[in-house]
Amino acid sequence: MKKQMLHTIVWKEDKLFVAKFLELELASQGKTKNEALKNLKEALDLYLEDENVNSLELPSIEEVTTKTVSLN
């Protein structure tokens, strides 16, 4: 099985943390960052349950940069 690394982003919305994969349209939430990431991993396991991981085509993201943009 080839090793695939997935990038995540985590942010706080109101009282919950949201965790999302950049390569997949898959997200989850939790009361803490760690809980949100744990829940995201569980969601990934369910998402991949019936998939052949070796043939799964994901975008290749080599570098991630964040920037805050002001809306004026």
Molecular structure report:
The chain has 72 residues and is an alpha+beta fold. Helices cover 21% and strands 22% of the residues. The protein contains one helix and three strands, in the order βββα. A three-stranded antiparallel β-sheet has the order 1-2-3, covered by helices on one side. Strand 2 and strand 3 (27-30) form a beta hairpin. The longest helix has 15 residues, at 33-47. The mean pLDDT is 88.
Name the features.
1 helix, alpha+beta, 3-stranded antiparallel β-sheet, 72 residues, flat, single chain, 21% helix
Order of helices and strands: EEEH
Largest β-sheet summary: 3 strands, antiparallel
**Low-confidence blocks of residues:** none
Average pLDDT confidence is: 88
* CA-based gyration radius: 14 Å
Helix fraction? 10-25%
| Strand order, sheet with most strands | 1-2-3
Estimate what percentage of residues fall within beta strands: 15-25%
Label the structural class: alpha+beta
User: N- to C-terminal separation?
Assistant: 48 Å
The number of strands is 3
Helix tally equals: 1
Principal-axis shape = flat
Brief write-up:
By secondary structure, the chain is α+β, with helices and mostly antiparallel strands. The protein contains one helix and three strands. The protein is 21% helix and 22% strand.
Give me the secondary-structure topology:
Layout lengths: L7 E6 L2 E6 L5 E4 L2 H15 L25
Antiparallel strand pairs: 1-2, 2-3
